[in-house]
Amino acid sequence: IYKTISKPPYELLKMDDLSSSLPSLQDIQIAYTRFKQLFLIDNSTDFWATDVKWFSLLESTNWLEIIRRVLKKAIEVAECLERQHTNVLLIEESATDLCCVISSLVQVMMDSYSRTKSGFQSLIQKEWVIGGHGFLDRCNHLHKSDKEEAPVFLLLLNCVWQLVQQYPPAFEFTETYLTVLSDSLYVPIFSTFFFNSQHQKDTNTSGESLKTQSAPFRFLTVWDWSVQFDPKAQAFLNNPLYAEKPKLDKNQRKTARFKHQRQLSLPLTQTKSSTKRGFFREETDHLIKNILGKRIGKFINSSDEPPNSFREFYDSWHSKPVDYHGLLLPRIDGPEIKVWAQRYLRWIPEAQLHGGGTIATAAKILDLMEEVQSLQVKMDEEHSQAVSGDVHSVPMLRNSARLSSLFPFALLQRQSIKPALPTSTWKDLEDEDDLVKRDDEFVDLSGDM
Fold this sequence. Notes:
Strand content: under 5%
Mean pLDDT: 75
Shape: globular
Helix content: 40-55%
Number of strands: 4
Oligomer: single chain
C-alpha cells in the first residue's frame, strides 16, 4: 500500500528524461578533470604563461557550459511548476545522480527555507544522503576504480555558488560555507558523504568485525562544524547581509506553505534499500509503473509548449525586482557563469588581490555594522537602559588592506604560516608535488582523534 504526497494535486504531468537533455556522467568527469588541470600552477612563470590563453583553455574544458546547462534545466522545471502548474517527473537510469542535482536546485530556487543553513542541510540529507546517492563510488573514496567516479555533488555546489554570488542577500550561508562543505566531501572521518546508501552505512558500522573493538565505532557528522573549526572561524560561514524572512503570525503560518516539493510515493512500511539502487530508484520505478498503468499519457503535453516559452519566462522574471524570499532564477547568459574562485584559486598566490575583491567590501561593511552596534549600546547606556545578556557583535576584519580576495583561505601575508580559516585539507603547498588529485586525497586524522 502506498500513499502519495502531492499537495496540491496538479492536473498535468510532464516526464523529463535527463539522460537525453544533460551530459552523461562520463562527460562531466572528463570536463572536471580538464578544469582542475588549469589550476596546477608550479611557479609564477607557468602562471603568466597560462594567463595569456586562460579564457580559451577555460572554454575548452566545457565545465562552465555544463553548469550553464544544468541551471537552464532547473529553470525549465521551475517554469513548469511555477507558471504551468504541472508536475514534473525526472527520469534517470540511477535516479540518484542528476535527478538529485536538478531536484535540489529547483528547491533552492523556489523555497527560501532551502537557502538557510538548516534548510540547505535538510535538503542535502533528504535528496542525497537518504536518497541513496553513491558518494563512495562517485567520489572514489577507496580508489578502487575510476569508472564510477564523477563529481556530481560538486556540480550541485558549483551551481548553488552561482546563485549565492548573484543573489548574496537571499542566502543565510556564504560561499565559504560551500567551500568547506566541498572540502569535507573528501575527509573520511565523516559518514555523511562516505557511503552509497543508508543501508550500506548500517551494514558496515554494525558488522561483526566492529563488534570486536573495545569501544563502539562512531562516525562523525559533517554538520557539526565544531569538529573542524573554532567558533571564531565558524563565523565566516554566516552571511551578515542575509535578508532574513520576516516571521509570520500564527494565522499566516497555516496558509504559508511551500507548494512545490519533490513528489514521491512513499511506502508506509520501512524498507531497506539495496546498496546499489537506493530508495529513490526503487520508489521511482514503482511510480512510473503506476503512471503507465493508469494510461495518463494524455496529460503529458510537453510537445504542445511554445518553443519560446522558456525565454519568455526567463526574461519576464529578470525584468522585475528581485524578491529574495521568493523565486530566484540564475542568470545564465554569457559571462554570468563564473569560476568559483575561492575554491579553485585559493592555492595560487598570484591570483590573489591583496586589499581588493569582494572581501575588502565585506570588511568595510562589517566594520560599519559593528560601529552601528557600538553606537546603539552607548545610546542605551545614556538612557540608563539595562542591556540584557552579551552583545553579539559581528566579527570584524581589521585592516582590510592586508586581506586577500580569497580570504579566509588564502594567506593574510606572504610570510604567514597558515590561512585565517584552516581547513582539514590544509598542507604546506611549498612541498606539494601533485595537486591534480588534491580533491581525492585522504587525510589521516587518526593522530588527532
